[in-house]
UniProtKB/TrEMBL annotation:
This is Uncharacterized protein. InterPro entries: UPF0175, UPF0175_domain. It holds the Pfam family UPF0175. Belongs to the UPF0175 family. The lineage of its organism: Bacteria, Pseudomonadati, Bacteroidota, Cytophagia, Cytophagales.
Amino acid sequence: MSTQTISIDFPNDIFLALNESETDLKNRIKLTLAVELYKSKKLTIGKAAQLSGMTRLDFEKELSKNKISISNLTEEDVLGDIEKLK
């Protein structure tokens, strides 16, 4: 898998204010971005998990912990599927 690097500049005191290492902050930013892109239906759950650097199961657990549905199916989708199965 090839990757691309994006740089973000932060004031030096941000790390002190957050009391986090650079690595911890990078991981939190990736997870937050992945969750937001998943919630806005820009990424599938698998791609969002990949972006976060987590396994799909761990990403699903993170979504569940934050009360975010692991399914993007709407009620209409489910009812449509039921009709197709009849």
